[in-house]
Inverse folding.
């Protein structure tokens, strides 16, 4: 589309707040992210039980994407609305989603992380966080990315959670090797559940005692069973897949990834949970009760979902890293209790590519599972218990 022809082109960027998973999450607009479509996940969102909607991202439709490469070899993603595209995103015949990638290998690439040139990073910050420089992040590991101002000076060190960039680079490499330029790939459009937070602190938890889907090969099944046995998935029904937590004392985010999470003992898991709720100066104790209340509400819903198995799905716990004064426009989702200071928290289930249930369109004859997902319930119960112990100072 040229200038003034329907909807303007949209810059599709790596989602800078992606802390876990392996699928590339991309920013569509301020309130929407997109990810490659998997039929089982689409089927889940299309038949989502009403009671679960407050605990999942809002499903917003589908877009079709294809890869283009310019004469310099830069990769470009082009997309046009597909079936299910919501009216709010516009009914234009085509929407261009593009992202020019000039990747340079990071000097420290233990997990294949990448670094952008300063101009791309600066643009990403401006586009993703208008009017705010949110991601004053100092990583626990790797990158030393620097932002320069207009005069080429480096006023302060700024870096960002690199996990989303790592996933995005892998995805583009896969697309460029597997698909020719005109091959269409569909993406799901989902609510950006952290868009309302100034400094989103995010904990990504892999839930349940089993991670492999019913359709997993014997080799994949064995691999997932081994990962569960060697991590807190077996002992607690939950393991850490990624985290970013804002540190008020430094003005940076502290980040960890799934490799760190897999190595944790049950005690290490508890300590990391405490670290997630600490701002560098103190434990944010006022967050504990609203998070526990939300987890208990989710637990009540999951117990009633017969036949559902949420294999390999994640649970996000989210809060704002910057304490703020309460205003009429930002009422907390929970009432104040026992004089506790109000705070805003959220709990959301994500990643349903291996979720199975009776009546699924993508799998009309699923492996029969009766009753609720006991592995998921086991993980939720342990998570609640650990947070309650934290609030009691244990």
């Amino acid at each position: 589309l040229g200038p003034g022809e329907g909807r303007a082109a949209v810059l599709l960027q790596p989602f800078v707040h992606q802390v876990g998973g392996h699928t590339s999450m991309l920013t569509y607009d301020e309130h929407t992210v997109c990810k490659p479509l998997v039929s089982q996940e689409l089927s889940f969102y299309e038949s989502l039980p009403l009671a679960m909607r407050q605990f999942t991202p809002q499903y917003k439709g589908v877009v079709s994407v294809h890869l283009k490469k310019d004469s310099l070899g830069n990769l470009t993603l082009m997309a046009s609305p597909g079936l299910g595209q919501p009216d709010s995103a516009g009914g234009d015949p085509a929407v261009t989603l593009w992202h020019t990638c000039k990747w340079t290998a990071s000097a420290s690439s233990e997990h294949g992380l990448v670094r952008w040139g300063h101009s791309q990073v600066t643009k990403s910050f401006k586009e993703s966080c208008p009017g705010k420089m949110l991601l004053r992040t100092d990583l626990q590991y790797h990158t030393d990315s620097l932002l320069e101002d207009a005069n080429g000076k480096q006023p302060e060190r700024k870096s960002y959670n690199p996990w989303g960039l790592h996933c995005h680079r892998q995805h583009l490499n896969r697309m460029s090797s597997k698909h020719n330029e005109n091959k269409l790939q569909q993406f799901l459009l989902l609510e950006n559940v952290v868009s309302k937070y100034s400094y989103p602190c995010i904990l990504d938890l892999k839930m349940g005692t089993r991670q492999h889907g019913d359709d997993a090969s014997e080799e994949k099944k064995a691999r997932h069973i081994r990962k569960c046995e060697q991590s807190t998935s077996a002992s607690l029904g939950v393991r850490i897949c990624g985290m970013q937590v804002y540190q008020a004392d430094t003005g940076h985010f502290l980040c960890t990834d799934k490799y760190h999470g897999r190595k944790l003992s049950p005690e290490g898991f508890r300590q990391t949970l405490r670290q997630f709720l600490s701002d560098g100066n103190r434990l944010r104790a006022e967050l504990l009760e609203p998070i526990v209340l939300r987890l208990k509400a989710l637990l009540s819903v999951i117990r009633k979902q017969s036949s559902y198995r949420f294999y390999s799905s994640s649970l996000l716990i989210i809060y704002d890293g910057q304490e703020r004064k309460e205003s009429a426009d930002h009422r907390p989702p929970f009432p104040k209790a026992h004089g506790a200071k109000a705070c805003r928290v959220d709990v959301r289930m994500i990643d349903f590519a291996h979720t199975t249930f009776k009546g699924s369109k993508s799998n009309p004859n699923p492996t029969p599972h009766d009753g609720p997902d006991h592995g998921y319930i086991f993980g939720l119960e342990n998570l609640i218990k650990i947070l309650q112990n934290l609030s009691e100072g244990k």
